[in-house]
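Predict structure. Chain length: 148.
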Amino acid sequence: MNHISLIKQVAALPGMSIVDLKKMWTDLHKTEAPPYNRVFLVKRLAYRLQEISLGGLSEETEKRLERMAAEEEIPPQERKRPPGEKLLPGTQLIREWKGAEHRCKVLEDGFEYQGRKFGSLSAVANFITGSRWNGLVFFALKKQGDKP
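Prediction complete.
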């Protein structure tokens, strides 16, 4: 299927009847369509058409997603982290930002900053700066662009 044909097929999905969407689902997935609404079917069918035409996720990405899903089932305090990300509870992280010193304490299950608990170091950095930051980069635990 060429790109023009793919674009036309995806563009036609919202105008199709629910019966036709479910038939297409069965044809593309080889299973019965789920009992969800039209919007769900259109979005998932659009993805499936693109996946068939352009290829799906790489093997590496699929493995990474599987690892992440498995990790979600493990309580945060028991998750294994890469060596560069291990921070022992009680560790004080200090950063000067715009002329003020900011201290963040590592907890068993998160971080504490100014008496407030945060689930991630990035959340602390975002709170301090008011913009999106990687917490490890903000507290100089890794260089920007470095892989964990």
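Summary: Residues 83-138 form one domain.
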